[in-house]
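Protein Entry — a single chain follows
Next Lines — sequence and tokenised fold
***
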Amino acid sequence: MPKRGGTEVFRITGARQGLADDVRGRQRRYIISMSVRTLSVIAAAVLWNVERHVAIVALALGILLPYIAVVIANAGRESAPSLPSTFVPAPVRPVLGAAGTAEAAEDARAEAPYGGRN
């Protein structure tokens, strides 16, 4: 809806997440991934002589998870493609006047000052 100056109006639902909230969320995801990595390395050490193949899987997870956590943490700000468009189009005002017939146009011209001429 344009204002008097013709400025555009944006929907607040289309606004991106604040920078502080975005950084906090990425830090939280990184801490969770590194906690899972620490637990998998500890599990690999504990299970090495008990279940060797489970320990190897846990060790592989412990080796690969730091890379994945860093890539996820450095992914940058996320866009929200599922939200509606941020631009709200100006409402179309209906045209008031005749329905398009010649009789209605003549009536409007007759009622106008100066015989329909300005």
Summary: The two ends are 31 Å apart (CA to CA). The chain has a mean pLDDT of 74.
